[in-house]
Design a protein that fits this description.
The protein is of the alpha+beta class. The chain is built from 6 helices and 21 strands. It starts with a strand and ends with a strand.
Length: 420
């Protein structure tokens, strides 16, 4: 792993640095590696799906891929990594840890391009229906000497309860309420997104409103394409529908043609407003393979030139959902005070068992404190020098905040990743 060096200065700031673009993709894989009474080895064959998915990945090359409906077994999730992603000359994909707190037969997972990203931490929100998975990634910049921090990005992945009954809607609402409660209690405003198959038919449904109208606007999710409405079976929204790719059901894939917007990537306020390290690239959000001309039809009926013919066929074979894709522009910034640059600190980050801090020549630290993300002070040490090594072996792996106080009461605060 390339060494991460963090340059810290005072706020407020002006930004300098370089930018990169990351592609996000979310995809419901339709029982990948999971055999049921209706999705069998005949109508949902694993090898056929793997070959189709190879075509899709070779075309799209996502940096972050979140998925629903992958078999919860180690075999299914590792098969997708080793027999789909890391094939055809690719060897750079990695995956999150396999967690299935709900005990279901299908699961969520996150796969990522390890050349650009690294998994810092992982958590799960357990619900009565399915897990909501939480992945914290950080960006591995090429020019890390000029970066503000490791540019964290938190990824939430959910698969809400299917169905149109009042009880189904209530269960979906309970799931998104649990998600927002987790965010409210565990996170601050920042760079995060939510991807998943929401199974909602309208933006007015309570489960969706829980996400986009949360009482704290800084913690809400935002639709990058700002397209609310009654999406179900409504031709006015044909360009954003993601399900179904099939007109006639084969017993596994749903039929009816393109008439629902089930699949989403929603973004945080910081990403929406470009106020963090990540910003949405306008015009990049799309349902791959949807040309807007196949309302109530299969995506491959007649002409569809939105993707190459081999990719269109692969999308039809792979799932009854289309993948949703969008780009994030990452700005691995250096932050420089417009008031004073009197305190400049360098931190080796991520951190093992030793936290190493060095100030610019001629500067001295008064103290160093380490806090948990909920504000609990865990370490406080005096530091009357320009360099300090602190034993942090007692801290569990995770994300912490370091506060450094210098002379004249100048200070900096920065997140760090504790790896072991």
């Amino acid at each position: 792993m390339r060494k991460l060096i963090t340059l810290l200065m005072l706020m407020p700031f002006i930004a300098i640095g370089q930018q990169d673009t990351l592609k996000l993709m979310h995809y419901n894989l339709l029982n990948y590696g999971n055999v049921t009474s209706y999705c069998t080895n005949q109508n949902n064959n694993l090898q056929t799906k793997a070959a189709a998915m190879q075509e899709i990945i070779s075309y799209s090359n996502p940096h972050i891929l979140t998925v629903n409906e992958i078999g919860s077994s180690n075999f299914a999730q590792e098969h997708f990594l080793n027999s789909v992603l890391n094939t055809q000359g690719r060897s750079h994909y990695a995956m999150g840890n396999i967690v299935n707190a709900s005990g279901g037969t299908i699961d969520n997972m996150l796969y990522y391009d390890s050349r650009f990203l690294e998994l810092a931490a992982q958590d799960v929100i357990s619900t009565s229906i399915r897990d909501i998975d939480v992945y914290k990634l950080y960006y591995r910049a090429d020019d890390l000497a000029n970066t503000a921090d490791t540019a964290f990005l938190t990824c939430f992945v959910t698969h809400l309860k299917a169905g149109s009954s009042s009880s189904d809607k209530q269960l979906r609402s309970a799931m998104t309420a649990a998600l927002m409660d987790y965010i409210d209690n565990n996170m601050s405003p920042g760079d995060f997104f939510l991807a998943g198959d929401f199974n909602v038919r309208s933006s007015s449904e309570q489960s969706y409103q829980n996400l986009v109208n949360f009482n704290n606007p800084a913690l809400r999710f935002y639709d990058p394409i700002s397209t609310p409405g009654s999406w179900n079976n409504n031709s006015s929204y044909s360009a954003v529908h993601t399900q179904s790719t099939h007109y006639s059901s084969n017993g596994c894939a749903s039929g009816g043609g393109m008439d629902d917007r089930f699949d989403f990537i929603l973004i945080s306020q910081d990403i929406q407003n470009s106020s963090g390290h990540y910003s949405f690239e306008f015009g990049s959000y799309e349902a791959m393979g949807n040309d807007g001309q196949h309302f109530n039809d299969a995506i491959n009926y007649g002409g569809n030139s939105s993707v190459p013919a081999n990719v269109l066929n692969a999308l039809y074979v792979m799932s009854d959902h289309l993948p949703v894709v969008m780009n994030l522009i990452v700005d691995q910034q250096a932050t420089v005070s417009v008031e004073t640059a009197s305190l400049q600190a360098y931190i080796a980050n991520p951190v093992g068992n030793t936290l190493r801090i060095r100030l610019h020549k001629g500067q001295q630290m008064k103290y160093i404190k380490v806090y948990s993300l909920d504000g609990q002070q865990l370490i406080s040490v005096p530091a009357g020098s320009a360099e300090k090594n602190i034993d942090v072996s007692s801290l569990a792996a995770g994300i912490y905040v370091v506060e450094i106080l210098g002379r004249n009461n100048t200070f900096v605060r920065q997140k760090i990743v504790k790896t072991n």
